[in-house]
Design a protein that fits this description.
The structure is a homodimer of 309-residue chains. Chain A is of the alpha+beta class and 309 residues long. In chain A, 19% of the residues lie in helices and 37% in strands. In chain A, strand 10 (195-200) and strand 11 form a beta hairpin.
Chain lengths: 309, 309
């Protein structure tokens, strides 16, 4: 029962002429989500943002931008194309498209290179792979139009592989509840002013969106033993946040390895478990985004259990 | 210009009634090799063994067994099926089929699971994956017939990723020669009684077979910077060999990470560069094979260079 937890991600900022993306309405966003082979499960809203919980991950819509994450074998590149066709490529101020290393890339319906080929038929821009193909790596495409990043535009992503220990056991148990997952992840303590929307999948898996003003957070959990994966992402400025959320999540979920990807988000390893940083990369984009990728490995030797096929 | 260096491997031992596999003749073996989408480039022979250098790796044929390694996008499972159909499944005393993690598994024409499905239509046996999907891992299928391993049946495989330094630079240079590669790998010193057959591919890549009595060695080099890979394999009893070949090759090729796979070959890390053993596994088979898999990582932090796509 394999499920690809690793997300594809698209972030788009539109020109002011488009008006508010939030006013495009639920039918518009439903069609975008459907084109990626996902569906909207529920949503929460505040003055700044609509946060949709999807059958496979999340969609956040602000006035001038949206962010969509999808996992499994979803076809997010199709959603990118549909959005561009509906809005018009000229009105896209900035777009980025990301994929991470997948557990079973051969089960995906397309490769990053194939997605790139399709996307570049509409919008141009550089693309990179960061990290070796036989290890954790990250693909990113960004548009090359002139665009000035907004002050305070930070994003941090924490991707955790092979979670172990009490929390991991709970997430794999049959008697879990959404409240129980929120409690075990200490979300109310760490993010006290956030409004949450979460969903527990059958038989396993958990997704949560949280919003507070224009700030968002999202966590997606694929707990299955052989290919466990948990992602956390936020636009909070973690360098100036009172709680060290990344270190706290690492302590709770105890992953064998993890990646941290930051956009305008300075790297810090304070509070991390003892680790080896296998590789890291800093990349400055033309638009002023500073991208950091680091791949960490717990400093321990693992006795591997042969998995019967 | 991507080339998948990682090999698929089949080893088959036949029942005595088959007679000598060496007497099946070149046409027979050419058809087996062709069914995997490879071809025979050259060969060497001695009293015990015929060693064929292939367009994509190697074939060794003894009286009662053969071993075939193929890389790239070859279809080795098809060769397995053709051999079984020609000889008859009842006369297969033992067979194993292996695949390693590939750099770009989505470019392969089949997955291990798909190969397994086809192979199991003819012969039954257990199969395992050792190692996590997001890291180095190894797939192996073995027949489950009763079969007693021969005394002295050792195999050692060394798989090296991301080679660096002087030898790596030479292997990527345009002025290399087969003699130069043999010299840089110190093969004459390490294997003084072996007869060699080697081939330098255009523009890069090198393969060598060596035989000495019933002992073989083979090295395949895919030196391209972004996905460099070097494999060494032998049935020498390395635990009782005067030169520490694995440690010597690691010192020469300086890989960022490497796997050692041993069949009835005790694990030793003497002389290895400073490393973290990320994971290891010992597996005992019903037939008495003891399989060891270990994944090693150099103890250093790598500054990753974004690769433009």
């Amino acid at each position: 029962m394999f499920f690809e937890g690793s997300e594809k991600k698209i972030e788009v900022i539109v020109a002011p002429q488009v008006g508010s993306l939030r006013e495009l309405g639920i039918d518009f966003w439903q069609s975008i989500v459907a084109s990626a082979n996902a569906e909207i499960l529920s949503s929460i809203s505040n003055d700044e943002c609509d946060a949709y919980l999807l059958s496979e991950s999340s969609l956040f819509v602000w006035k001038d931008r949206f962010l969509m994450l999808t996992c499994g074998t979803t076809t997010l590149a199709d959603a990118v194309m549909l959005f561009i066709d509906k809005i018009g490529a000229d009105l896209i101020a900035f777009a980025s498209y990301q994929r991470k290393n997948e557990y079973q890339s051969h089960l995906q319906t397309s490769s990053f290179e194939q997605d790139l080929h399709v996307i570049r038929e509409r919008i141009s821009g550089p693309a990179f792979r960061i990290g070796h193909l036989d290890s954790h790596h990250h693909y990113i495409f960004m548009t090359d139009k002139p665009h000035t990043t907004i002050q305070g535009d930070h994003t941090s992503e924490l991707l955790m592989y092979h979670i172990q220990g009490e929390a991991a056991d709970y997430l794999r148990s049959s008697n879990q509840s959404a409240e129980g997952v929120r409690r075990i992840l200490e979300l109310d303590e760490m993010l006290p002013n956030f409004r949450f929307d979460d969903f527990l999948f059958e038989p396993f898996g958990y997704s949560i969106n949280g919003i507070n003003g224009d700030k968002y957070m999202t966590i997606h959990i694929t707990p299955q033993e052989a290919s466990s994966y948990v992602s956390f992402e936020t636009n909070l400025d973690l360098a100036h946040y009172p709680v060290d959320i990344i270190a706290r999540l690492l302590a709770i979920l105890n992953p064998g390895s993890w990646d941290v990807i930051g956009f305008n988000s300075p790297r810090s390893t304070q509070g991390y478990p003892e680790h080896l940083c296998l590789g890291s990369c800093a990349l400055e984009t033309k638009q002023g985004y500073s991208l950091d990728f680091s791949h960490y490995q717990q400093m321990c030797h693992e006795v591997l259990i042969p998995e019967s096929i």
